[in-house]
Amino acid sequence: MTGALPAMAWRIATRVASPLLPLFLARRVRRGKEIAARLPERQGHGADRPPGRLVWLHAASVGESQSLLPLLTALARRAPDLHFLVTTGTVTSAALLAERLPPALAARTRHRFVPLDVPAWVARFLDTWRPDAGIFVESELWPNLIAAATARNIPLGLVNARLSKKATATWARLPGFAARVLGAFRLVAAQTHADADRLRQIGAAEVQSWGNLKAAAAPLPADPAELARLRTILAGRPVFVAASTHPGEEAAILAARPAGVLTILVPRHPDRGAEVAALAGAAPRRSLGATPGPADPVWVADTLGELGLWFRLAGAAFIGGSLVPLGGHNPLEAARLGCPVIFGPHMGNFSEAAALLLQAGGAIQVPDAAALAAEVAAVLTNARKAGDMVAAAMAAMGRPDGSEALPDRLAAVILPWLPPAEAAGVADAEPGASVAPG
């Protein structure tokens, strides 16, 4: 089975659904999930293509867009004439990308929200942006968008690819369709060996397993003045941070939090701040400018892009998405900042990173929230235990697994796909020449 019939069915279904999609987008605007003024981008409008060679990189949300930064840097360093288009699907990813891009790189980068997978909308997007190559990150596979890019002879790569067991089972029901979608990519580079095996199961012909771009990322930033201010306010208080939490986790953490400890709850989605604060008995909220008083046991950090601040303040960090079956979040971010790491049983999205830390003694895995309280208390009250965990994690992350070289390795594969600078009309571009963002 070639997958032609499911591909045709998907094209027809998205065309039929397209008149209703503006209502879907309007509902997302009301929920804060879209920006009203930028809704035309979801239909492929809003192109502002810079001259010369353009690499398009697509990432679904916050984690994926942040993993792009090392690759963007490597591509920009190797080809000073390149410009970049980054597409994402969420408001938070757009805001954090704008905050984290270095100024020189930001001047060479445009951001747009990815068009919904309607044939006419993706055609408009590709025909007006005319990218010279497209790079998809992780598991964001839109069949019409990929097929339209292939029809235009745009070389495509899938990097930092991952595929959960559930997604593998779903794609496996249509093996020809899966093979058709994955066959569009010249390069499929998986995060882990397990991801590579799952991608092969659903029809990816050649899969590389070169490591995780997130392991090559720079440490999360923090404002030095704000860090100093909060350290003064919290002086003498043991601090525990529950990072990137999801519904069902906050209540369990609150019920099991150690006595006498300030617990900082950082919901994965900041718009849940009011809900989380209510669970915590009207706890003060960072987004409202509140700081915890001496009698406040909980502080809700419902802001975007400040995990680097909380990991530097905390004596222990719980990694969210792991007490509920969501696959967890990146434990290396906290470990890289010298914060002892604890996570629950569900770490499938970062299985190799979790195993790396656990095998070295640089992290603790708990079966449930009840066990979490005892482990947090043990780490916060035993400086030697905490120090040993940090040292073990740092040693494990310093192993020569190739993660630091991965962005350059990917860039070396991608750049030959592009036309020569002369062919793109940029032979005379000066190193570092830039175009103001659109």
Note down, in words, how this protein is organized:
This protein is α/β, with parallel strands linked by helices and 438 residues long. The protein has two domains: 4-211 and 403-417, Rossmann fold, CATH 3.40.50; 224-397, 3-Layer(aba) Sandwich (Rossmann fold), CATH 3.40.50. The protein is 42% helix and 14% strand. It has 19 helices and 13 strands. It has helices at 4-17, 21-30, 62-78, 91-100, 103-106, 119-129, 143-151, 165-172, 175-182, 193-201, 224-233, 250-256, 273-279, 307-313, 332-336, 351-360, 369-381, 383-397, 406-414, and strands at 54-58, 83-88, 109-113, 133-137, 156-161, 185-190, 208-209, 239-245, 262-267, 298-300, 316-319, 341-343, 363-365. The strands form two sheets. The chain has a seven-stranded parallel sheet, with helices on both faces. Helix 3 (62-78) packs parallel to helix 4 (91-100) and helix 3 (62-78) packs across helix 19 (406-414). The chain is globular. It starts with a helix and ends in a 24-residue tail after the last helix. Residues 425-438 have low confidence and may be disordered.
List the helices and strands and how they pair.
Layout: H1 4-17, H2 21-30, E1 54-58, H3 62-78, E2 83-88, H4 91-100, H5 103-106, E3 109-113, H6 119-129, E4 133-137, H7 143-151, E5 156-161, H8 165-172, H9 175-182, E6 185-190, H10 193-201, E7 208-209, H11 224-233, E8 239-245, H12 250-256, E9 262-267, H13 273-279, E10 298-300, H14 307-313, E11 316-319, H15 332-336, E12 341-343, H16 351-360, E13 363-365, H17 369-381, H18 383-397, H19 406-414
Parallel strand pairs: 1-2, 1-4, 2-3, 4-5, 5-6, 6-7, 8-9, 8-11, 9-10, 11-12, 12-13
